[in-house]
Amino acid sequence: MALKTEGYVMPMWSYAGPAAAQQAMSAAKATGINSVEIDFNFTTGPAKFQSNTVSIETNTKNTLSNLSEAIGVAKSLGLSVWVKPQLQVGGSGDPDHGNWAFMAPTDPKAWFQSYTAALKTMGATAQAAGADHFILTNELRSMTNGPYVAEWTQLFQEVRGVFKGPIGFNAGAFWSYSKQEYEGIPAAVVNQLDFMGLSAYPRFGTDATTTQSLAQVQAGWSKDYTGRNTLGEIQTWQAQYPTKPLYFTELGSPDTAGGYNGYQKGAAHGNYQDMANYLLGSLAVIQTNAPQVKGAFVYEWSMSPTGGTWDVSASPIVTSALTKGWAYA
Fold it and tell me: Other CB atoms closer than 10 Å to residue 178's CB: what's the count?
């Protein structure tokens, strides 16, 4: 049973122009995907976690014109396009840049006004370029799990005024918290979303370096490194929201205990066969055991054919596994 949406996350930080994007996306499409998710950076003000301002992070790659261009390339190849902001704490070069789950603005209402304005600017560009779905958050646990139903409601209304396609979240899932981000989002917020996305990095290994066999990965979806029944948790959430489409808007393995330590770092840090086992095993389990999941985006595939630090297209082993994974029946 094939997934309705099968894709890769393609971040703007690997964008190298339309010709390069055309070549990289064509190679990605050859593995059998039908969608891409394009990540676009936002940044906080200098107060970082306590900042009340959000803006688009502008550099030579992360520009609105480049975002529009990348969307156009994907659409020309017949791919569905999902777009998503990543809020870089202090900017992408800051040591805290990836700790966006811990935002604590001193004036939440001002933060929401600023975040909404940035989303509307991005959304207007995405709408004009032909994007199909808009993911409004990236693992913003402290803000999605906070007492902000009225603020999210206002944000949704304003964003829908400029972007006409489905909107949803990319919420953290299967981390070490007692309650996962997607589980802690108020029902009054979830019910206003067109879909829920999970940022999922399950841990199936016995430690940070042990090779994960295909069988181990498949078994791990029912009992992972921490004893978590990932499939069971998905089914419990879906029973609460039986009509809400569910997607893995990020799917990967973490560089931490129980994860494949080389997943995002290539052969110099690990074994590509381990990566292939993780991806093939996971896609097989999802497609045969979780019919409530409508799609998945593997994190990630570079928008440059010459690759980057995390370019999974660099390995024929991984490419072959992904091709088999998308076609799993």
Answer: 6
Q: With beta carbons less than 8 A apart as the criterion, state whether 251 and 204 touch.
A: no
- Axis-axis angle for helices 64-76, 108-129 (nearest 10): 40
> For the packed helices 316-326 and 272-289, what is the interaxial angle rounded to 10 degrees?
0
* Domains delineated in the chain: 5-326 (3.20.20.80)
Name the β-bridge partners of 297: 7
What pLDDT tens digit does each residue of the chain (329 aa) get? 578 999 999 999 989 999 999 999 998 898 899 999 999 999 999 999 999 999 999 999 999 999 999 999 999 999 999 999 999 999 999 999 999 999 999 999 999 999 999 999 999 999 999 999 999 999 999 999 999 999 999 999 999 999 999 999 999 998 766 679 999 999 999 999 999 999 998 887 655 556 678 888 888 899 887 788 988 999 899 999 999 999 999 998 776 667 764 444 444 445 677 778 888 888 888 888 888 899 999 887 888 877 654 455 556 777 888 888 887 64
